[in-house]
């Protein structure tokens, strides 16, 4: 599978409830080995309930952005969240099915994770 194949797919909870669409992916770089950079590991999906468009990096809380773009990105991606890769049970032809209910993890690292 090519990772871009995940973009735009519906994300479904175990009970079939739709969380939204995959709009971006998060990776972690593994340790470097000699002169080679570490391998990338997929760690999470970014899921948006209102948009199919990517964030183009503007979802990161530390990125300065023009006020108009900031307002547009916030509106389009309200309710978006990080879904850990460990929650994914299977990837179907047109959807991603979760094996467990996904935790609510906000995109902005400055926002606390809701309890419960």
Gross geometry = globular
CATH T-level topology: SH3 type barrels
* Total of DSSP H or I helical runs spanning 4+ residues: 1
Instruction: Report the β-strand fraction as a percent range.
Output: 25-35%
Reported for the largest beta sheet, the result is:
7 strands, mixed
Supply the CATH superfamily name.
PRC-barrel domain
What's the domain count?
1
Please state the structural category: mainly beta
N- and C-termini, Cα separation? 35 Å
CATH class equals Mainly Beta
Mean of residue pLDDT?
82
Helix percentage range: under 10%
Strand order across the biggest sheet? 5-6-1-2-3-4-7
What's the Cα radius of gyration?
15 Å
């Amino acid at each position: 599978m090519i990772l871009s194949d995940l973009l735009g797919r519906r994300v479904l909870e175990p009970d079939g409830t739709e969380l939204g669409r995959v709009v971006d992916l998060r990776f972690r770089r593994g340790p470097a080995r000699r002169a080679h950079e570490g391998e990338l590991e997929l760690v999470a999906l970014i899921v948006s309930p209102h948009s199919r468009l990517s964030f183009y990096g503007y979802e990161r809380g530390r990125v300065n952005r023009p006020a108009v773009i900031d307002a547009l990105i916030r509106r389009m991606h309200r309710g978006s969240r990080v879904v850990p890769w460990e929650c994914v049970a299977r990837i179907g032809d047109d959807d991603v099915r979760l094996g467990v209910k996904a935790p609510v993890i906000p995109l902005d690292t400055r926002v606390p994770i809701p309890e419960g």
